């Protein structure tokens, strides 16, 4: 059974709001979701978080599906953080590029990483203006880790701390997300078929218990709901842009970095799970040792988890590692003693 925890058992009343904010491109708006405690009236840089999703699934799908009675956004908001989640253009509630209305072969891969960095910049600037704060914390997963890493390297003054879950970095093996062949503008993702690839990363004996009962189905429904048009045309299928996969081919899979980690000068947390096939332990170690100018850095390795650890039985270990990292220290990222 899905062990559901009543909302009132672990959190104060939360306020949830959705916004459409302008991007730097005419006709493209970006979806931002905000969750915070209803009683929260004062806002600070240290307690403000912006979440960034990966290459396939939207922020709502990864960070705000209430599995076991709570989502990652719920968890952070209940601890007093003012939490925002961004959908880059082409994802979730943000504008889909017009090319996604045509067959994928009619366009080059859409939404490359540099475009996502610009969308992240638009979101950061909007939140800083809205809350009257000079900087915020970034938390990002997978490809989003590349986006947030590149943004931070160029905008250290706007970031308090950077927490990355399985961030995409230089790959030492083929990327499972890339099935090969010519890349069109976008791909069609049969969401329900993903369970097999997800579980395949774990040892056979561990697969039955990796995702608690009912969680995959709830997550899949939320993922499909993020693309009603794609789902309507092809039931149980959603569309995902191919720009991130083209960048894997041109950069991460070819041994070329999209940004220099030495340019990151804020505290950094890396969270990784032992069975992650998409971003291996060796890749994570390479990034960790490259963060030479961070005031301090930390790597948390979670046993019995895959690339999707935020949605698995051991997700609370990741949640707690991230919230602890973001809650510690002084106003400018200096560790407190």
UniProtKB/TrEMBL annotation:
<dbReference type="GO" id="GO:0016787">
    <property type="term" value="F:hydrolase activity"/>
</dbReference>
<dbReference type="InterPro" id="IPR050266">
    <property type="entry name" value="AB_hydrolase_sf"/>
</dbReference>
<feature type="domain" description="AB hydrolase-1">
    <location>
        <begin position="48"/>
        <end position="313"/>
    </location>
</feature>
<dbReference type="InterPro" id="IPR000073">
    <property type="entry name" value="AB_hydrolase_1"/>
</dbReference>
<dbReference type="InterPro" id="IPR029058">
    <property type="entry name" value="AB_hydrolase_fold"/>
</dbReference>
<protein>
    <submittedName>
        <fullName>Alpha/beta hydrolase</fullName>
    </submittedName>
</protein>
<keyword id="KW-0378">Hydrolase</keyword>
<dbReference type="GO" id="GO:0016020">
    <property type="term" value="C:membrane"/>
</dbReference>
<dbReference type="Pfam" id="PF00561">
    <property type="entry name" value="Abhydrolase_1"/>
</dbReference>
């Amino acid at each position: 059974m899905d062990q559901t925890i009543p909302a009132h058992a672990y959190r104060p009343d939360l306020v949830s709001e959705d916004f459409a904010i302008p991007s730097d491109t005419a006709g493209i708006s970006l979806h931002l979701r905000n969750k915070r405690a209803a009683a929260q009236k004062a806002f600070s840089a240290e307690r403000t978080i912006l979440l960034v999703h990966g290459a396939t699934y939207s922020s709502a799908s990864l960070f705000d599906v209430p599995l076991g009675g709570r989502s990652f956004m719920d968890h952070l908001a209940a601890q007093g953080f003012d939490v925002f989640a961004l959908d880059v253009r082409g994802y979730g509630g943000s504008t889909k590029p017009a090319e996604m209305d045509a067959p994928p072969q009619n366009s080059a891969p859409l939404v490359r990483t540099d475009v996502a960095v610009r969308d992240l910049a638009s979101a950061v600037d909007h939140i800083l203006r809205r809350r009257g704060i000079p900087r915020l914390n970034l938390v990002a997963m997978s490809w989003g880790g590349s986006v947030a890493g590149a943004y931070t390297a160029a905008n250290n003054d706007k970031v308090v701390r950077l927490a990355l879950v399985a961030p995409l970095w230089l790959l030492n093996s083929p990327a499972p997300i890339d099935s090969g062949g010519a890349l069109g503008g976008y791909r069609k993702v049969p969401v329900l078929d993903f369970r097999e690839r997800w579980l395949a990363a774990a040892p056979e004996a561990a697969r039955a218990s990796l995702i608690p009962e009912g969680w995959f189905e709830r997550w899949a429904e939320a993922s499909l709901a993020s693309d009603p048009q794609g789902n309507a045309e092809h039931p149980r299928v959603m569309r995902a842009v191919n720009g991130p996969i083209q960048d894997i081919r041109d950069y991460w899979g070819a041994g070329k970095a999209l940004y220099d980690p030495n340019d990151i000068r804020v505290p950094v947390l890396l969270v990784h799970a032992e069975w992650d096939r998409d971003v291996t332990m060796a890749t994570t170690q390479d990034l960790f040792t490259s963060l030479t100018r961070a005031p301090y850095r930390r790597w948390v390795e979670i046993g019995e988890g895959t690339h999707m650890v935020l949605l698995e039985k051991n997700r609370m270990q990741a949640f707690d590692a991230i919230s602890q990292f973001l809650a510690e220290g002084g106003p400018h990222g200096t560790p407190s003693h």
